[in-house]
Each structure stands twice: as C-alpha cells, then as structure tokens.
Amino acid sequence: MKYFIIIASFLFTSISIGQELMCQVSVLTNPALTVTTTEKEIFQELEKAVTEVMNETSWTNEHFEVEERINCNIQISITNVNGPESFEATFQIQATRPVYNTTYNTTLLNFLDEDVNFTFRRGSKIVFSKNQYSSNLASILGFYAYYILGLDGDSFAKNGGEPYLKEAQNIVMLAQSSRGDGWKSNQRGKKNRFWLIDNALHELFSPLRETFYDYHRKGLDRMYDSPAEARKEIKASLEKLISVNQARPNSINVVNFIRSKRDELTNIFRDADNKEKTELVNTLKRLDPTNASIYQELLQ
Q1: pTM of the shown model
Q2: Does some domain include residue 184?
C-alpha cells in the first residue's frame, strides 16, 4: 500500500503538470567571426541547454497534452565573443498557434531581440528560478517563455494570458539591477524586453489585447465556417489599434503585430471586395506608415 501511494502520487504529479512549449533552438555565428573548435563545441552545448530549459521546464501548473504545446523557435546568432564564457548575440523569437479547423498555424510573435549578452560555461545547465535572478540567459529565456504563453492565452480568451504576462513583468523587475542589456527603459530606444511587457500590460494598450483576442478567436478561428464574417471581425479588430497608435505612434507591440500578420492578411482578403480591401489598407497604412507601399499591394 505504501509503495502504491508513492507511485500514485508520482503519476498524479506527472500528469497534472506538463511542459507547455515545443521549442526549436538553433545557434548560429556571424560569418565575420573566427570561431575556434572549442567555441563551436560550446555553441553546440548552448543549443542543447537552451532546448532543454525551454522544453523541459514546467512554466505553469496547467497540464498541456503534447499536441497542445505551443510551437516556437529561438534562433541565437552569436555576434561577438568577449571571452571564453562571455558572448553577445541577437535572439530571433517566433511563436505560432493553430487555427481552428485547419492545418494552418498563425504567427503570435516574431521579434528580433538585439540586446543580448550572456555567459555560458561548458558542461553547465541553464537553471531558471521564478522568484530570483540567477543569470541573464536564464532570465531572457524565462521572459520569452512567459511572454509567449501570455500571447497564446490572450489569443484564446480575453486577457487569458494575464498571469503569464505578469510573470514576464516580474522577471524584468528582478533583472533590472543586473548588468544585462534589454531590461531597462533607456536601452535600445523602446525596442527591448522592458517595453514589450510594459506596453502589453499598460492600460493604454488594452485595445491591443482585445484585438489579439478578436483577430484570432472571432476572426481566424471562424475562417473555415464563415470567411466573410471572419474578415469583418479581423478588419474591425485592427481598427481598434488606431487609438493606441495615436497615443503611442510606432509602438513596438503594435508594429510587430501588424508586420507579423502582413502576408496572412494578404491571403485572408484576397477574395474580399475592393471596398473592404481599401478600408483594410487604409487602416494598415495608419498603423505602420513606414510600410505603406507594401500594404498598397493588397489592392493589386
């Protein structure tokens, strides 16, 4: 009986808490860098260690079936080697979620983090702790894990990602006193981790989170059954962002969202009438004027 209880307890723990992410990781080096054999081996270990922490950490108390795990990619591009264990890099972070009744996956996040510096030692593991700062690399990975979970949650329920976005915000706060880049408001203009999460949780940006839900749940998830109604929901959801853009022009969160959906919107509105296309293009131009010419192609 004693052993049965122990085994039952173990099984319960195993099935009640599971890993949430299905993360593909690659480590590349700048072609201009001269990389030694030892450094190549370090980068191979780094790739394995990042893969393990992203995929084997239980980030929440929720149970995710294997098919429910969130697909994401992290491409680490080493830009400088400052010492045997010290590196500078960029992180390209991507995450997707499936669209209901289709085999299509829509982009939730596509962000280039250029403020990455970290240390990594051969033979070491990356250990993430939710309530304390252990290393810059662990904090960066933890931040993006929770940020991705937050976006995914928001795409399925109104403000459904709130607890995970707050965890990401807590990581930023804990990392503020570190020497790592990208955690403070005055680094990299307003294109860093501080501003990503600050904008996500700021009341001013609440229309963006509404848009995130409306676009995915009321729009994309209905494309199979009711494409015309789905397009109307998607167009209406994007129009909610105009007020945000007026208050905070060129916000990193709004611009990233619009640009990550650019090709998708082209496909969605390919069969729409000219009036609907024109209204959409005008909205996109207001939200991302830098790429106005690209959005104009939707009308062709």
Answers
A1: 0.91
A2: yes
> Domain check: are 191 and 100 in the same one?
yes
* Residue 177 DSSP one-character state: T
166 phi/psi in degrees, rounded to 5: -70, -30
For residue 1, being part of any structural domain is answered with no
Distance CA 76, CA 79 (A): 9
Domains identified in the chain, total number: 2
* Cα-trace Rg, the chain: 21
- Tens-digit pLDDT profile for residues 181-233: 999 988 777 789 999 999 999 999 999 999 999 999 999 999 999 999 999 99
- Neighbour count for residue 133 (Cβ, 10 Å): 18
- Domain residues for 64? 16-201
98 and 213, same domain (yes or no): no
Task: Please count the helices (runs of H) and the strands (runs of E) in the chain.
Answer: 12, 4
DSSP-derived pairing of the beta strands 70-83 and 86-98: antiparallel
> 293: which 2 tokens?
């010419």
Token pair, residue 205, equals 């940006």
